[in-house]
Design goal:
This protein is mainly beta and 299 residues long. The protein folds into 3 domains: 66 residues, Sandwich (Immunoglobulin-like); 93 residues, Immunoglobulin-like (Sandwich), CATH 2.60.40; 94 residues, no CATH class. It contains 2 helices and 15 strands. Strands 6, 8, 9, 11, 12 and 13 form a 6-stranded mixed beta sheet that branches. The chain has a 4-stranded antiparallel beta sheet with strand order 2-1-3-4, with no helix packed on it. A hairpin with a 4-residue loop joins strand 3 and strand 4. It is rod-shaped and about 165 Å long.
């Protein structure tokens, strides 16, 4: 500001500078020594609200004061904030509840807010994790996300004028035990197999009727000998058949059992000293498998 005095520049004692901030006059600075009649003071425009305002100069020579106002426009250039993701930044394996961290600063000391997202590189969308928070950390429950090794984090910082983002430098992995993987244990998962008994090989075609003919009948008629003889006098029969074979061929298994029963009956007959004809044994009759186990019924 140029200030002159008719009594000479040396008569000017002090020049003060003010600015009207909203409705309050704020002292900017003062100057006592002119350079080519110019007086000046440093001025930090960021201390004032953007828009039109008034600057005032107050010069005094010790006996009188002179005021001069000038209108100016304040248009501060707001510096954008700076943000950088620190964790996860690439290469980590993430599981459970995980803390996402980042650093941020603002040259204008503006209050910053943050939004945090996760995304897959190349995808057209990203998913919000934390929204409009003021702290530089975000708690993420990763169990709601499908396991995989192609994830990144995006953090956006806002100061009211600017939105600045930073992303993870490389992919990281989400690996939660059983998170998105099937248990693999649906019905029958125990590995046990139910094998039907020989009496149930041919199911009834009508559950509301009584089947008069049995599918398998083993009968032994003993025509001689003492029926009261203790079973302890009979020899024991031991043997083993392959369980896999019996399961695969239940019809053969029943025939084998019937034959063994007949042989045991004959052996017992001779050991008791019986004579005459041998007891008669009726072996079971089986129809061809092509008939799908259908059997005529007596009406």
């Amino acid at each position: 500001m140029t200030v002159t005095d008719d009594d000479g520049q040396a008569d000017i004692e002090l020049v003060k500078f003010y600015a009207l901030n909203d409705s309050t006059w704020v002292l900017i600075g003062n100057d006592t020594t002119a350079t080519d009649s110019l007086y000046s003071a440093p001025f930090d425009s960021t201390l004032l609200i953007d828009g039109n305002t008034t600057l005032r100069v107050n010069a005094t020579d010790g006996s009188s004061d002179v005021l001069q106002d000038v209108t100016i426009t304040i248009d501060n250039i707001n510096a954008a904030p700076v943000v950088a993701v620190t964790k996860p930044n690439g290469g980590e394996t993430v599981e459970g509840t995980y803390a996402i961290n980042w650093t941020a600063s603002d040259a204008d000391n503006d209050t910053l807010s943050y939004d945090v997202f996760y995304f897959i590189p190349g995808a057209s969308t990203q998913t919000i994790i934390c929204n409009d928070i003021a702290v530089k950390t975000c708690s993420w429950s990763t169990t709601s996300v499908t396991n995989g090794d192609g994830y990144r984090i995006n953090v956006t910082a806002a100061d009211g004028s600017h939105f600045v983002s930073d992303q993870s430098d490389a992919n990281f992995t989400i690996s939660n035990s059983g998170g998105s993987e099937g248990s693999g244990s649906e019905g029958g998962g125990s590995g046990e197999v139910s094998v039907p008994s020989a009496a149930n090989l041919a199911p009834s075609s009508d559950t509301n009727e009584t089947q008069e003919d049995e599918i398998v009948q083993i009968a032994a008629e003993n025509s001689a000998g003492d029926s009261t003889t203790s079973d302890n006098n009979l020899p024991s029969l031991t043997g083993a058949f392959s369980l896999d074979n019996l399961r695969a061929n239940p019809t053969i298994a029943v025939v084998m059992l019937a034959s063994l029963a007949a042989a045991i009956g004959a052996l017992a007959f001779f050991m008791r000293g019986g004579g005459g004809s041998l007891p008669k044994f009726n072996l079971p009759q089986f129809e061809s498998p092509a008939n799908d186990f259908k059997k005529s019924k007596k009406r």
